[in-house]
Amino acid sequence: YCFGYLKEIFGLNKSKAERIMLEVFSVFYLRRLSKAFSQGELERATSKGTFLRSELHFDPFHSSEDSS
């Protein structure tokens, strides 16, 4: 899994590796949502939450975390 590679390569602790992964995922999700919005995919989706879970495999646990 990615955490193991980050920890080994950069000597990161688990907490720091998790924050980095959350930041990377956040950027990816925002870009994908922007594309989905501009192409009308979100408009056609049953709900934005359903879109996130099914299309992006978004973990609802992370949606409530503060990435700052």
Automatic annotation (TrEMBL):
GO terms for biological process: protein import into chloroplast stroma. One of its GO terms (cellular component) is TOC-TIC supercomplex I. Transmembrane segments: none annotated. InterPro entries: TIC110 (IPR031610). Signal peptide: none annotated. It holds the Pfam family Tic110. This is Uncharacterized protein.
